Amino acid sequence: MSDLLLIDRRWIARGAARSSTLRFALWLAPWIFLLLLGIYAAGLCLYYGLNQTNMDNRFAFGMWIFLDLAIIAMGAGAFFTGFLVYILKQKDLKPVLNSAVVVGLTCYSGAVAVLMVDVGQPLRAWFTFWYPNTHSMLTEVTFCISCYLLVLILEYIPVVLRNRQLRKVPSFLVFEHQFHKLVPVLAGVGTFLSFFHQGSLGGLYGVLRGRPFAYRAGFAIWPSTFFLFLLSAIAVGPSFLMLVTATAEKVTGRQLVQPGVYRKLGFISGVLLAVYVAAKAVDTLVWLNITSPSVGFGPRDFYSYWPLSSTFLFAAIVPLGLLPAILLIAPVTARKRGWLLCGATLACCGVLLNRFVFTIQTLALPTLAFDEFLSYIPSWQEVATFGAVIAYGVIVYSLSYRYLPLFEEGKGAGQHVSLG
Amino acid sequence: MFPWVDGFHWTMGHIVFLSLFFAAVLVIGSTLVSALLWTASDFRSRRAAELCWRINFRELPEAERHCRHEFAGRAPSRVCDNAFDCRSCQNYAKYAALPGKDFSRNRGVHYSVNLLYHRGHTWVRPRGDGTCTIGLDEFASRLIGKPDTVDLPAKNTELVSDGVAWRMTKNGREIRVRAPLDGTVLSTGGPEHEWFLKIRPHEPLNLRHLLSGAEVSGWLAAELDRLQLQLSAPNSAPCLADGGTLMPDLMDAVPQADWDAVLAATFLES
Amino acid sequence: MSARYGMVIDLDRCTGCGACMVACAAENNVPPAPPSATPRTGLTPMLVHKVSNGLEGSAQREVFIPVTCMQCERETPCVGVCPQQAVEVDKATGIVMQIPQRCLGCRYCMTACPYHARYFNWWDPKWPEGMEKTLNPGVSTRMRGVVEKCNLCHARLHGAMEKAAAAGKKEIDPTDYVPACVEACPTGAIVFGNLADRNDPASRAADSPDAFRLLARLGTEPKIHYKSRQAWVRALAERGTSRSSEAKHV
Amino acid sequence: MKVSRRDLLIGSAGVTAGIIFTPVPWKLLGDVSIWTQNFSWIPQLPRGPVEVKQSACTLCANGCGVRVRMAAGCPVGVAGVSGHPVSKGTLCPLTFAAHQLNWHPRRLREVRHRGRPASWSDAQAAFAKACGEGQVAIFDAQPERAASSVFAAFIQKHNGCYRPVLGPESQALAPYASWSGVPVNALGYDLENTRTIVSFGAPLLDGWGTPGRFTRLWSDRAAGASDPQLRLIQMESSFSRTAALAWRRVAVREGSDAALAAGVARVLLEEGLVAAQAPMPVLPLAEAAAQTGLSVEEIRSLVRTMVEKRPVLAIAAEESPSVAALNVLLGAVGTPGGIVAKKNHVPARVPAEAPKTSPRAVLIDASVPWEFDPQTDAEIFRFAAWDGGGGKADWLLPAPGFLEYLTDVPAPPTSGVDTYAIAVNLAASPPEIKSAAQFLQKIDSSMPEVDQLIRAHCEEIFHSHQGAVYGEQPLPVSTIESAQKIEEQLRKGAVWVGNPSRPGNLRCVLKDWPAERTLPRPTNWAAAWPVPVLPPIATKLYQESNLREAPAGRQA
Which chain B residues are Cβ-neighbours of A6 within 8 angstroms? Predict the structure, then answer.
């Protein structure tokens, strides 16, 4: 036992204060349980097929797609922070960069894992690369997400190699050093890829001519939702990063970044959110007054069904859009950590709601004159499978925090000058 | 995807989309490959060890990167920015010219004036015949006492300055002792001998980076302070509270101390 | 040949017996439902909806609306969205084809279809022991986890084309190509034919003033037409118009 | 040159990289994936020559023409025969999957005695013993077949009685039979010539009579028209499919048909709207109105619309003397567009008299619906192709299934003309399968063979010189050279159709207005389906859609 503690200790960065091995194990235990449960549920879905879920021919997309879209939006913090640090040279955001990479990696890999369960023929996933239909938004999403996942993994490698034991291997240390010189390139590629797939995830719905609730006019080949999803993703990414960091600080009971970083992330998030809300409002007006009437659908076709009534639309724009934007920008509130985090939370909820509306409400609403409004409750297999993704995220982040230099703490200054 | 795949059309969409995709993949791939190639070349040109040391040095806590001239009292508090390699330090001459003070307060850790000390707690004794012997200084040996195992390099191994000279273990902890200078191993001693390695240094022999004279006592004093600070961490007994001498085989004496931190600081591991 | 196959379904004639649904399933080797299947998870490439005019007493009326793939001609919603070219519009026939062997089962096309005419194989295809001897040898069974839909009994079109080829003819004999549902309809409510041919009974029926299409305003040019002499039934074409007469699905 | 390990490594790496860009690994992966998609069960499609045969459906008495696609000697598809004189090219929804029935999990493949497996010889021994000891009753739901003649011959030889089991359509015709002396099987409806049909809850558009005969008529002459040539007035309490599609729907109280008929009759007589003579119903109009839940005025206006377009024909769902009496009053008996006798001379082959004593044994033919209960404590020998479950037969005897045996198909109960068809055994029946007729022949070898009887009937047709044989094209019997030719044609799926019935060969005399006994009405849409099981894909109709409610007592 003592040896075990010793070994665990040896992998923790020198001088980094970490909780005892036992406490850490206790912290992980419930998450590991959740993970195993989810893996079992996913196994059921893969073995017996998707009849294990409560999806059906109308709800062909369910909770999985909705939450996948949500966490991919949240994961946008990774590419956006990289973009800010390496492309826009916002050096003061460096302290959260590694953390952002881990968050992004877990979000994306988790989402992809769930997608693999969600499709009816996971073994044919590669068909998308082999017979790509370049007109499909989903093709764009698949290509970009898989590439970007690769980028995230590559960006994660240097962080891993800086683990105290791994770095003792000279080749690792040297590789990490050399590779790090190229990370800005990856950040650029990541930005390019993310720009497209975050947008295409919105395009996914915007192009649904057969679903007037989701269909949007747009520019060139991209419906307006392409730009709205992109905007909302980069707006909420930093907010989510703030929340994760704050949670980490709460759990570990240590200050991990300077308050200034929060301020900056919050401000960026807030400004983008404000722009998003404005664009969203305009888009909604255009859609309700021009796009959908032209195909014979009016507001009462969309908002006369409880509970998905117009209050949802209002909520998405004002309390979960405008309000957080103000909280994150206004100096009065932005100075107070509590308000800042409250704003970030609201912003995340806003994007969550937006993804919910586009995924679930689109399918719940009737199209034919003799359709009904349908509802759907996910089965425990669906919930558990997704719970596993959350658990996976927590576990990976905890392990990374414990054994890898996610934040600058207890080290000499200048450590990151060339190693970021 | 590829023209030979059923369903491929030579349409604008395909061409633009796929070329963008392949471009991205290419960039990602080439970053990885070039990083690997650079790494390989570093090893081929023997720069790897030094590079490792420099990366490692950068991540040392500031307290462990103080300049030798500070210990000699020639300079105010100054942090080294050249990885302790005074041979290539521009400021060396400037400071070396200044008058120094001797802080030597004998705290029971003896050092010899005719030994040259490396910051990694090894000493070098140049011999007439152009070879040098390398040993562990008293501070380190008292810390460790009798190591459980000692893993010395084979004959004719090329040592690289600040690279790993030899490895030891004590109470399940690995200790990597840094080489004080470059050279070829001629013969090996060990804890029972008074030296560990006899090497033939590379020509031209330049030992400027090693501490000597008054610097050593200042440095050792600082090290002792550091050690005392570390050992008086909450979970360790106040063994040096008396400011007295450093007892031999401290690792066995004070097993509950945070030896990871102590050893890392002692042997310059970040 | 560049035909545009389509149907005109006379809703006044439909008695909602369901022969078309059974005949379709038998022709296309659609598997029977496992015990836990519901109307929402079923496999019914041809599905007859039962719609009431919402009135009471002797004024109460019902209409039965057979809904199948509408074979949309323009901007076919399901074709553009498929990430791997598993859906395509056959240039020669205008039939929207689904390639189950290539389908990933992402179900994006199902969300794209405004008619809910696409169905997912939620279960493994299973027939009782020995019953596979009664499967239609011309149509391969689909596997679990892929989307399927009406392809206007494409196997029958192939048969007709082979027959024509054997006879050394270019064009197929229209009487050789009749989808199972059309053949099965006891009241002859479904007229099937080549809408591109002005003299075809189907395209003539499609031009009748009583003819209409479901959600035509979406602009996807569905090739399945409906007709009825009852105004309230014609009003079911679009949501907007149907609101006046509170028709509801029962 | 010497090849170092390094070169080999590099080489192999290059090869692997190259292979990735050839279709080989992807094709392999694709095949693997396609295999794994249905690893649990891979359906094997039948292989073999495909041919199309014509025959007649024998699942019920309505004798629809079926076009059967055969692959490797097994039916793989069923469709209607376009232009078929009986079924007009249509079938009931379930028959389109009838070829699945022979493989249904509930298919009977062995003799069972009180639930335990037994042998044919045991069953024969037991039945022979019963014949020796007492009277046997034979129940048959499709009378007039060759098999029926075998039954008749058997009970004439051994003491016993023959009990035809009438379906609802035949029961509705029973009153005319008892008033006119013409047997039920000789009666039918001349729907083609009527202008107004008053249906007392008969499911005319949902499985009444030969499916397709009336639906075709309705869709051609009535569907969706505001003033159709053929007026369908549906009197029904529930909102059935027929009610939903009828020209007029009159919502009356459950089981008030008799009262309504009486009320209608009263109005007809009081307002002198009918020429024909019939006794005045005892029931006063107000009382009738009260029972039906209609107002007197509603009944009056209903009657006026009824007689607007003549001929008018009232159709009851099952036996209903008052509805029959109403037809007499409307002059719809023995006239065009009314109740007609489809057979001019009716061979009283099968005496249908009640048994003198309670029988020692009961033999139930496979044609009898599973639900039928002989209400006897005698030893029951039940022939059935499928086990409907819960049967309390002592002997359960596996009968041939769909298209598995040779039989003839007489005119359907509701048909207005006499018809005759032959259904040959297209599919090979499993071993250990016997029809009731074969069973009786095994017991008494002097019994006539079914094919001989069929040949004899063809001879009859040939010598009668009446009607025509409808094959590819209709051939008048008088132009056919021999009975063999007729039989050949019929065995190929052709149908003999007799001459249209002469008006006036059916006369009903009614002394006083009949009393009514109301029977429970079959509510289940699959009640017209005599087979106790449904084809598996029938789930499309009720489980996988909301088109119909799940059929009680029938399972897919």
Answer: 172-173
